[in-house]
Amino acid sequence: MAAVATCGTGAGSTGSVVAAGSKNHVTSFQRRGPRASGSDSSYSRLVSIAGTRPSVRNGQLLVSTGLPALDQLLGGGLAVGTVLLIEEDKYNIYSSLLFKYFLAEGIINGHTLLVASAKEDPADILQELPAPLLDDNFKKDFDEEACNHKTAESNIKMKIAWRYQLLPKMEAGPVSSSRFGHYYDASKKMPQELIEASKWHGFFFPEKSSSTLNIEPCSLTHGYIKLLQFIQNIIYEEGFDGSNPQKKQKNILRIGIQNLGSPLWGDDICCTENGNSHSLTKFLYVLRGLLRTSLSACMITMPTHLIQNKAIISRVTNLSDTVVGLESFIGSERETNPLYKDYHGLIHIRQIPRLNNLIYDVSDVKDLAFKLKRKLFTIERLHLPPDLSDTVSRSSKQDLAEPSKLLGPGCGVMAGGKKHLDF
Amino acid sequence: VTKGKLTLLCDANTDGSFLVHHFLSFYLKANCKVCFVALIQSFSHYNIVGQKLGVSLTVARECGQLVFLEGLKSSVDVFFRAQAEPHPLQFLREANAENLQPLYEFVREALKPVDDGEAAWRCPVLLVDDLSVLLSLGMGAVAVLDFIHYCRATVCWERKGNIVALVHDSGDTEDEENNILLNGLSHQSHLILRAEGLATGFCRDVHGQLRILWRTPSQPTTQRDQSLTYQYKIQDKSVSFFAKGMSPAVL
């Protein structure tokens, strides 16, 4: 079959994706074909969707998570049709920030947003999105051209430790594809015009909970059922699943669900150990089914540290495609630990999907820490500061051993292990 | 191709899906009729990996060699629209689904021997990826074990076919149901392939360890079960195996 041949050769030539001509595009959308129920005739029109790019590894269509550093760790970005699960940090500070970056990226790229929350009104969430950094002078005013260019991070030359300059940078520097991944200024708010120009749908659970159910009772909690129906409605009506082939411009639907699994959604897995243990997992399964058959990507933040039944966490991990855990140092004893003084927390990449492939991109670095500066959220390899004291006290040695045991396991899908030895 | 066997694939701390892809392509190449209950990934995913391994799932599906139940896509249909006839994934709609009978009926129907003298396939094969998902979707471990028991009676004993199923081993997380399922299946299976992560942690060149265990569940355990251990590295189109410690990266 000719289609098979194109697919095969496309998979072989991983080449340079950005400069690749239509061949790569044809390949990536041939792969999209069986997922979206659209017809073959729409492929010729599917040249490119704003804010997406094909993956170097397998031609999968990727969108940016809003954090170029995280995109790099996930193998280029978040694959369309998959779920990114963020395990929240203890006080939900950094995970809500990542959530906002994800939504802001959607607005900049012109994607449609679907924001679901049980805690805050989606309109309020959108008002608080960070402003994008636009040009070199970090000016707030912009025009249509400038908002598509990324800022050039000033490349500070190292004078003394110049050898370290050769180490690979974790964050993505200025990249040739100017429309993928932007930097945001966390201290400023997104301009109102941009928010109003964007298309978004909000699902605020307290508002919707009063309407009647029109589905047979199954073991899903009420909130999840309504959310699934809402998402499915949007996907169907706006044609993200290819059901409306007359639409000229295909677009991506970015779904953001905040604090899934918390008691505010009506789910009691955070309160008791023997609660409704299947509601959340069923929800995730049907959600993933919806995503696989439409042009959408989803980010979910979940307070996994509150879930009482640990088995649910492992099931949830197995049901999600990409899982990233955040651990912030606020309030823990690590805040004052001199080892971690440069960073705000640790980031654990717990799972990366193997889509259309036997293998996947995994970074070599397992110990990652993040740092939030005003204009930049960086993720770096955790560097232990040099041990300068002559007499090393016993307490600090123990501190060293404890976190290194925790850092060892790293990416659980590849190989778990308790010891901090590499093979 | 041996007949009448139940093979259990198990992964612990790592991803054992490469084993599923291998068995799928193996049985398709061996000209067997395959019923694939794919609950965890979409059809195109298996198709693309299958092409790398040398089989085309679309061709197999069209000519009837492969019956594919795409869990993710069908779940959306089942969940949002009431179905006229019983659907294999009907338990998604029900609050307290007792058993997996509709799914079993689907499998039985799919692997029914064709009598009209067409291209006769070799033994029927049931492939399930994966069973742990059924636990997440609300079925109890006993219901899943019953389902496998019924399938075994039909596929392995009556039709002399094979069953291959993947179960995740949750390791030290206290997933009781999963442990029950895993132990129950381990006792019933003839061959256990267990993919584990390395005890020393992550390594770029050796992705994990595969433990192979041959069992004879029906006979008394006077003869010892044989077992072998290999370490492996997954590459783009294949998986390379080597003895412990003999990774090319180390030598």
From TrEMBL, chain A:
Sorted UniProt keywords: Cytoplasm, Nucleus, tRNA processing
InterPro entries xref list: Elongator_complex_protein_4, P-loop_NTPase
Subcellular location(s) per record: Cytoplasm; Nucleus
Keyword Nucleotide-binding attributed: no
CDD domains, alphabetized: Elp4
Pfam families linked to this entry: PAXNEB (PF05625)
Pathway: tRNA modification; 5-methoxycarbonylmethyl-2-thiouridine-tRNA biosynthesis
Family note: Belongs to the ELP4 family.
Described purpose of this protein according to its UniProt entry: Component of the elongator complex which is required for multiple tRNA modifications, including mcm5U (5-methoxycarbonylmethyl uridine), mcm5s2U (5-methoxycarbonylmethyl-2-thiouridine), and ncm5U (5-carbamoylmethyl uridine). The elongator complex catalyzes the formation of carboxymethyluridine in the wobble base at position 34 in tRNAs.
The protein's name: Elongator complex protein 4
Taxonomic source organism: Felis catus (Cat)
High-level lineage: Eukaryota, Metazoa, Chordata, Craniata, Vertebrata
UniProtKB/TrEMBL annotation, chain B:
Pathway linked to the protein: tRNA modification; 5-methoxycarbonylmethyl-2-thiouridine-tRNA biosynthesis
InterPro entries: ELP6 (IPR018627), P-loop_NTPase (IPR027417)
Taxonomy, superkingdom: Eukaryota
One Pfam assignment: ELP6
Family, as annotated: Belongs to the ELP6 family.
Protein name, UniProt field: Elongator complex protein 6
Species this protein is from: Felis catus (Cat)
